Amino acid sequence: MSPTPIDPPALPLPGTAPNGTEVANWIRQRIRTGRFVPGQRLVEVDIIRQTGASRTKVREALKRLEGEGLVAIEEFRGASVRSATIEEVRQIYRARMALEGISAGDFARYASAQDRQRLIDLQAELDLCVEQRLPDKFGRLNGEWHRLIVEGSGNLQIAELLQRLNVPIHRLLFESFYDEQRLRTANADHRAMVDLIMAGDADGAEAAMRRHVEAGFHTLSAIESEFYR
């Protein structure tokens, strides 16, 4: 199921100033979970107070997020959370369909025995999340499941491209995106792909992943009025 949220590392312990990467992760996570909403100003002084970072590191983080398309920086107005249009998201998902599809096929062809076993183990954890109705945990494991397939395929270029493509998809609250029926539907897709991968059906795995990512976009389209403007 898409999106594939990534849990960034926590900020350093109190008394240790975070670097630009850690501040960017902190801001990014709050955008993804809706604590910072599209159009909201990101006030440097507030971020400094909440993270303990220097002004230089906060500005470095904001510039990084601007480059990722997640933040807009305007002269005299400062930084704000950038809105993503549904058309932008559609284009991103079309690219992801192709790239993640290739990854699934290559994973079926080339993944190590260790990665294959990890995929089986992750799928068992996802199954348990569905049965126990744990949407937040499902969201985290879903991200790990997708990343394992991409990384296990052995194509580093695709991994880097997908990391950038995932970034602008934000403000997806798990209680809406990962409701019970969506969890079951997405997890059924996952199980089918695991079966295809373990059977060595690379073409089938690629086609199944393409359908799975496309289904994620249709889910977003259905809740467009709530999450996009």
Automatic annotation (TrEMBL):
Pfam families linked to this entry: FCD, GntR
Keyword DNA-binding carried by entry: yes
Record keyword Transcription present: yes
Name the record gives this protein: FCD domain-containing protein
Top-rank taxon, per record: Bacteria
InterPro entries per record: GntR_C, TF_FadR/GntR_C, Tscrpt_reg_HTH_GntR, WH-like_DNA-bd_sf, WH_DNA-bd_sf
Entry keywords, A to Z: DNA-binding, Transcription, Transcription regulation
PROSITE patterns to which the protein is assigned, alphabetical: HTH_GNTR
Gene3D superfamilies linked: GntR ligand-binding domain-like, Winged helix-like DNA-binding domain superfamily/Winged helix DNA-binding domain
Domain HTH gntR-type: 17-84
Transmembrane region(s): none
